[in-house]
Amino acid sequence: MSMDEIYQQLKIKLHDVVPDFELKYKAELAHEINQLKKEKNAVILGHNYMEPALFHSIPDYTGDSLELSRQAAETDKDIIVFCGVRFMAETAKILSPGKTVLLPAKEAGCSLAASITAEDVRNLKKQFPGVPVVTYVNTYADVKAETDICCTSSNASAVVESLNADTVIFLPDEYLAKNVAKETSKHIIFPSKNGIGKFNNDMDYQLIGWHGRCEVHEKFTVEDIENIRAQFPDVAILAHPECSPEVVEASDYSASTSAMIKYVEQSSAPRYLLLTECSMGDNIAAANPDKELLRLCSVRCPHMNEITLEDTLDSLKYNQYVIDVPEEIRVKAARAVERMITIG
Ligand code: 13P
Ligand code: SF4
Question: Is any atom of ligand 1 closer than 6 Å to the C-beta of 214?
Fold first, then answer.
């Protein structure tokens, strides 16, 4: 596609969101990225949270964590450029060890991934011997390597149920764990970080959680929902399952980022509010001009927002930042991720 074609395409989708002079500049960057992508035999994976001009111009595939993991596992390209955060790029490397995986911004982290270490998981396993461990993909490779199976927001309850176990350790998102506990009718407890031996093992619990939080989704409150509904009584509210159970309960629908997109595409509410990273609202509005989206844009993911078209261009030009996972950790982490992928 020529630069002008990219510009025209962006203009159709984003004329209400991005000023024209900026669209021209972004189209130039996108054109250069797409040329380099071809020359270097690279594939670009873009998470649903990417900013609108990037999201609608350079990714070969867009999606939620699960969909992008699948694409990373299946690609025949030499280079995977991951427009997302570090744990996602690491998951791509875990599944495609022979490929070069690039993350355009060095520091694109995640508060959930930062909330738990491999040592924490080893301590929990000592505290609850023999109990299977499920970890959310929003964790680093060494944490995944200590666990039996991973999950994403789109398959968390199915993964827990697939284990057919009396008790399951579910890490590290406190809110996702509580939402899964509710969905699977399980009773949940939260051990303290150094609380070995503190629990009465006769107690009736089936899920053991951790106090990790998404710094974005924890900010939404039931009061926000009440305020929005007071002003727009006909709004459909969609909450990501990293929101608190109270927020999920007060919403109309809760699911992964891609499932939220499908919900908006396939339903016909007068307007929608997404309780998640605000760029996704822009991306949906751009792709569905007939839908009205309300946005709470003071809540942003600083990590996802680190990924820009400029950084993606530099990433391809200078082969940066290369994601590596030590082989002994990768092999163990791959078992947990692949086991999840077979569940769907
Ligand atoms: P999804 O898997 O639903 O895309 O979520 C990833 C994420 O980081 C949400 O904050
Ligand atoms: Fe992590 Fe939350 Fe950002 Fe998702 S939105 S990458 S869970 S900090």
Answer: yes
